Structures are given as C-alpha cells and as structure tokens.
Amino acid sequence: MPVVHAIKKLFDSVGGLSAPTVDALQRPLLSTQEIGELMAKAGRMKATPLLSSNRFAGAGEQPSTLLGSGLDFAGRRTYVAGDDPRNIDWRASARSQQTLLRNHYSELNSPACVVIDRRPAMAFGTRKRLKVTQALRVGITLGMQMLRGGHHLACLLLDHPDYWQAPVNSPAQFRQTIEKAAAACYPDDRKPLVRWNRISENIKRNLALGSQLVIISDFLPLNEVELKALRQLSQLYALTLIQILDRSELELPTVSQITLNYRKKNQQLLDSPLRVEQLNRILASQWQRQHSQFKKIPCRFIRLYADDELDAVRVPF
Predict the structure, then answer these.
(1) Over the chain, what is the mean pLDDT?
(2) Which of 5, 68, 127, 167 could be cross-linked to 152 through a Cys-Cys bond (beta carbons 3.0 to 4.6 Å apart)?
C-alpha cells in the first residue's frame, strides 16, 4: 500500500487528530446558508485571478470560427440584398465607394462541466475542513463563474452511485445539484473504489467534445491506466485538474506524540521524530513522482489545500 494511502487511513479524523463524533458525520458538508453565500460571492468575482498552484499551464483562448451576432470583429464584406442594414460600416463604405458590411464571430453557448469527487476517500481532514468540503466549495465557485460567463453547465458528482446533471444555464438547477452534493460524506473503506478510466468513459458519453471540463479530486491513488484516461480527456476537452489535499498528506506534522486511529485501534507510530523524518522523505519522493506524471498531461493543473480560503483561489474561464 502506498504510504500516502496508508497515512490517509491512519488519519481517519476530522478537525485535528481525534476521531469525529457521530453528530459531526451526520451533518451536511455545507449548510444551505453557506451554499447561498458561496454562490453569491462567486457571482461577484471580477478581478484578475490569483492562483494557488504548483503548475499553471493554460490551454489558451479558443475563439469561435463561426460568423454570427457576437461582439468580436471578423472583418468586412460587400453588402448583398437581404443583409441587415444595421451592420453596414458607413465610414468604411465611404472610403471604398462601395457598401461594406461588418462581420462578427458568433458567441457560442459552449457547454462546461464540473466534476466533484465526494467519494468516501475524500472524507479526510486534519485541520479546518475535510477535503470533500473544500472540493465542494471550489466547485461552487467555479460553477457559478462559468454560469455567469454564459456556459451551459453540467455537473458530475462522483459518489455511490454517480450523479449526472445535464448542461443547463440555470443557477437554480446548479444549486439543487450542490445541495445534493453537500449531504454528509462518510469515510467508509468498504465502498468499491471507482477508477478514473471508468469515470472518463462516463464523461465522454455525456459531455460534448471541446467543452470546458474541471475535475476536482485528490487523485489518489493513480495508476498508469488512469493517467492514460486523464490524458485522453485532455485531448478531447479544455481540461483543468484541481487537486485537493490535506497538508498532512504532503508532510507529517513534527510533534512529540501523535495517536493515529486505524480500524478502531490506537497506534503510536509517529512518536519518534526520526520516524516522522523517514516518512516525510518517502512522501516527498512519491509526490515528486506524481507531479512529474501530471506534467505529462496537457492541461491546467492546480493544487489546493483543504484549509485554503477561496479569496485567493480563482480560475479564469
């Protein structure tokens, strides 16, 4: 078992390093008030994005190639009978001594999709919030930005079973999906692990090619088959991968004593600074290897922590 996955099992806790109470597990990840506040705040975001990221590789803007009634200028042509006279460029017509029409590119209502991982493995946290809660907060923020930008938004909730919301430009519909995603999420390892190659096939069945696609997950664990599936998605969609991690997954806290809860057994595994240092070296090596793997995927890749605040986390769409 990879050390990162083993540590995730060992730190089966919420809000520190103690086991969560039953009441805490039964509460929604976000209240209806918190959802409303996040949606309203995201709808007001206009500033240039500031990214918390270990790598940012934008795919670039992809302008429409179709002529229509958009705002982007696409050149001029000679007026013919039946053209809308409101599009005549009178100044250019006077200079050229012929009636010229202004052409514009069409504004496409391109679909977009936000994938939020709320599987049991994401119900993990040692600080302010669970990773699944942070994934939900990021999903709300980016979903509202895309709706505000005119996209028809689809949502895929990775759960048992998965939930698919078809593309629609409706904040009300998006809120219904988010409220479904905000239900309590239990850290239960008995649930079957759904692989990214199967998730990729689900996306390709339901989402139009060329769409904006944002996947929010911890991406743990990943094998070569799953990495290949993500690379295929990057070739079919404008792909953004947002990795949500707890800080303890990258570096274990250096303290004199820690009690780890694993399968209802207490284990004193990290009471030695030497042991912590040894595990941190292994962690650093594994994360460096995964970072190298992600760099081979042509996409925008962003790493966030579960305790990051969203004021500094904005992605341009």
Answers:
(1) 76
(2) 167
Model pTM?
A: 0.72
pLDDT at 300 over 70: yes
The residue range of the domain holding 126 is 3-62+108-312
Which residues face 279 on adjacent strands?
Answer: none
Q: Where are the alpha helices (DSSP H) in 207-272?
A: 224-236, 247-250
Looking at the domain assignment, is residue 317 inside a domain?
no
pLDDT computed for residue 179 by the predictor: 95
Cβ(167)–Cβ(112) under 8 Å?
Answer: yes
Question: Which residue from 77, 68, 126, 179 is spatially nearest to 307, judged by alpha carbons?
Answer: 126
The answer as to whether 298 is a domain residue is yes
113 shares its domain with 220: yes
Structure tokens at 187: 């850290």
How many domains, the chain? 2
Query: What is the rounded CA–CA span in Å between residue 88 and residue 76?
Result: 9
Residues 149 and 46 in one domain: yes
Answer with the one of 53, 88, 105 that is the final residue of a domain.
105
Return d(Cα 99, Cα 256) in angstroms, integer: 82
**Closest listed residue to residue 288, CA positions, set 258, 316, 251:** 251
Is residue 132, in this structure, part of any structural domain at all?
yes
Say if residue 197 is in the same domain as residue 230.
Answer: yes
Hey, how many other C-beta atoms are within 10 angstroms of the C-beta on 273? 11
Apex 308 CA angle, 302 and 312, nearest 5? 70
| C-alpha closest to that of 242 among 209, 215, 202 | 215
Q: At what angle do helices 3-10 and 273-295 cross, to 10 degrees?
A: 120
pLDDT in tens, 189-241: 666 666 888 999 999 999 998 899 999 999 987 888 889 999 999 999 999 99
- Which tokens go with 119? 């599987």
**Is there a single domain that holds both residue 176 and residue 205?**
yes
DSSP secondary structure, 53-86, as one string: -S-----------SEEEEEEEEEEEE--TTS-GG
* CA proximity to 294, closest of 52, 2, 1, 57: 57
